[in-house]
């Protein structure tokens, strides 16, 4: 009887209730009856659902099939299975996650952005329009290989271009990708960090080709803030770009802060609006049979035992006046999410299931990910007060490849 009464609630009241739900609950509620389905559809088409969605971990599940992905909800501590459009999820590389969309590279090294919640998919400009890539055609005028040139905006690394099979190019070319906004808004940019030497290229919604941004390289992370692209390099420089005002030229927002880099660097906007720079260290654990006298040598890349563990995370505030870094001893009530996703800083008080002053992290080391696809992924929660980490769930639910990423569920559908 209670269910019958609830089904008769006016649509505006149903929508107001639905608007405060986490996406897993929202999707379930939308499947109850036609009236609730109508409220769910209305919220998803207008984007009026709860905006403070708790990040989830998107991963693949080998037992569930090639077209599916797993979604682990931190809010519910529960795993779900999603069905995604072709090409099969297991055949893709994941190189980014922003605004509820992932950026993937298929077996032809072509890029798509996909919303795992709605199944919406958008093809990006062809990989052959990236500056360093040229198609090679067979006798039937079909692309059979790619020619890859090893030059940056400043110098040529190798004089002779390399030839890659269609699926092989993505492992050498793509590093990380970012969106400026939700593609459902209609106007957005996609930015690629790609090789050689981690350069930048971008495309605007509707573009037929990628636009290259020479001459700088060695970029690590990107962030859109105030209509500008902020791009961090491996030595801590931050460059800004106005992608909507050609010709696009870089401006230095922060000079280099280090000469030698061991850490990976992230740029994130704090919940108060300030810019943060994060340094993350992860090293392979030392084997018992390793001689300490050989500790300065390059570690042997043994696929059976080579794993990475996050050992330190340092947080710095970028002082907008002095243009210098100020190390922070605590995030306070803030929470960070780092990985092959847009770097995030959230207020723990708005997300009851998250731990304040902690960093939720996944693997995003380029060489480790592409060279050791079958190895255990470094995924966990790092406590900045104790400098220790713990697993999110044990044993881990996620498979090793494609690399798991953080995703803020986005149920809004393309119009």
TrEMBL record:
Pfam families xref list? Beta-prop_KIB1-4 (PF03478), F-box-like (PF12937)
User: Region (Disordered) spans which residues?
Assistant: 283-302
By its UniProt entry, which SUPFAM superfamilies does this protein fall under? DPP6 N-terminal domain-like, F-box domain
Outline the extent of the F-box domain: 3-52
Gene3D superfamilies per the record? 1.20.1280.50
- In terms of superkingdom, the source organism counts as Eukaryota
Q: Which residues form the signal peptide?
A: none
> Spans of biased composition, class Acidic residues?
288-302
* Name of this chain's protein: F-box domain-containing protein
| Native organism | Urochloa decumbens
